[in-house]
Fold this protein.
Amino acid sequence: MNLDFSDDQKQLQDQVRRFLAERCTSAAVRRIVETDETFDRPLYAGLAEMGVLGAAIPEEYGGVGLSKLELCLFAEELGRVIAPVPVSSSIYLAAEFLLLAGTEAQKKAWLPKLAAGEIVGTFAVTEGTGRTTPDKIRASVRNGRLSGGKVAVPDGAAADLAVVAARHGTGDGADAISLYLVDLRGPGVERTVLTTLDPSRKAASFTFTDTPAERLGGTGDGWHIAGQVMDRAAILMAFEQVGGSDRALEMARDYALDRMAFGRPIGSFQAIKHMLADMYVSATLARSNCYYAAWALSTDAAELPVAAATARVSATQSFQHCAKNNIQTHGGMGFTWAFDCHLYYRRSNALALSLGSLSTWESLLIERMRGGNAAVA
Amino acid sequence: MDFEDSPEEADFRARVRAWIRDNAPRHLEAELKTAGFADNGIRSTDPLTACRAWQKQKYDAGWACLHWPKDYGGGGYQPIQRVIFGQEEGLYAALSGPFGIGQGMCGPTLMAWAAEAHKQRYLPPLASGEEIWCQLFSEPASGSDLAGLRTRAEPATDGSGDWIINGQKIWTSGAHRSEFGLLITRTDPSVPKHKGLTMFFLDMRSPGVEVRPIKQANGQSEFNEVYFTDVRIPDGQRLGAVGQGWEVSLTTLMNERLSIGSGMSLGFPELFAFCLEAEIDGRPAVDDSAVRSRLATYAVRQSGLKYTGMRAITALSKGQTPGPENSIGKLVAGTAMQELAMFALDLQGAAGVEMGDDQPLQGRFQKMLMRSPATRIEGGSDEILRNIIGERVLGLPGDVRVDKTVAFRDIPTSGRQKA
């Protein structure tokens, strides 16, 4: 039995933590939040140089060739400091799509650039409100040209390359959907940067008009591939959420120790103490569920779909819980722009919607348990 | 990461598995599968006799109290080996119920504080199940505030050096079938509360000890009241110095919190199975999005506890001490069981009020509903556990206390009387 990361892996995590503590300060996050700068390019370049971006990409495609386990721990650190960089879109999603479904030529063309941070990738699937299902995809490709629109594309402001889900034919079924690689700096792309809950990661909407599009994976396989990639990305995202949970809890704990009221540190009041204990409980449950999912991810286990949904639901609940009660612990100060509490609250709620909302994942978890994917309990 | 045994662990598991295969009381297997709260399911024979027989069999083969030293009747094994034995023992572990408190809490306390001769005398029969121990701590006026206890121990006036005990304990599990008890008393009311306590152990058959079962809110009787009237205890049965009782009790309580809540079932598999069967508007309940949301919430709590436990086993396997994350077990389980039971009953509709044995799942959720309030209180209430997490794990300051520096006898005893 070994449900823990190795000492070597923890040492690498520690290096990334120290790098981020120095380079991804509150001031760095706020520079992105408060300006039109799309993401922290020097930080992103630094992460590429450290091998964080290429951690789980094979060396032949310009990566470092570590495993998904290391990437899980790096994700936790990025979540801890709510890093204003597009790692999840570019690495957990775009690079994973290429690794899973790309041709040799596509992998060679794009993966080294993604690993080096020279370009930013993303996944464009959403077209409207509500759970995204195949019948809601109206964007279509004919003769290698994409037309249609996508909304709320994560890191859309920064992205150079998108994996786009679009229909290649008629019908509402999943087999009408294929995936396409689209150069977002090329012709026929109209980009609108959006005002969102979390301006530390700038989303965009796109209108495509006869945009050149190259198929990724088999015709009609798009929905299936996307499901596999989303499960893997959900696990990495859950590690970001666990990192964010821990940091929000630490901020609340530190404030509860320092802040005096009625002649005592507020952390000595049970109302505060018990709220923080409950945050610890949520964060611990999420972390343990994530460790199991990390095992499933790194071994490509049959249990991966249930493990991913479990980690995702648990980590979403935990980060939202910790971020909102971090504000509550800070009282009025927590509602000021000057304190960082709102940055975590924003990120927790944005991540809860990214990759499919909480209710979507709850439903997926139960569908999968019902399908006998694996016994969670 | 993996879920495999190390080669040594695999060897050990194979030995345990073979022994259990050859020795377990298989004729009880069907009954043990019907086990519920405070009920190991045994009907065909006296349940306690069945428990004692299995315990003695384990003891004779060297499988009792695996992590205790061999000199005291244990197996001299590592904590991880104890975990493996428990996994392999499976449903037969329900036969260990009557010995849990004695072996889990009283034994370690004796090991830390008793004289060598007493350890030699009392620990082996505790391990073998031939002598059962109970823990006499809580009182009607001191539950969470254990140090507020009032049972008095006074030196006998006959010069024997014995102590005379008067007072009352409550919530004592298994007192009615115990040979011995671990008893915390107040020996000095003139000093602050934590400083005037002294720990003893006593023979439960001593004159003046009276055990009365408590009829609980759910109708069962798992616990007792124990009354002490001029009960005499030799000074040699004192554990620790006079006035050191609080320190001694912490040894016991530390072990209590490790044992209660680890590996608790929240009843999730049963609820999930029920939601596949039950219907809402002619469709399986599990198709309903509100049902799915609730199920998912319980599923991730159940799995979170399971994998938290596996992280602890990982630490043990590496020869390390598990981290503080294990302190969440009972806190999560108690509330989850209560909520889960209420949800299951909601799905049963008006028929959910029936709790007879002929009801779906033998009234399992109804029984869970009625037992779960106790889970949230026993062995450290939800509130005490949150204090422990807040103070010992997160490092928050303790509450301001009005009772710590005054003499115990000067502490007010009623909320309505003037201090």
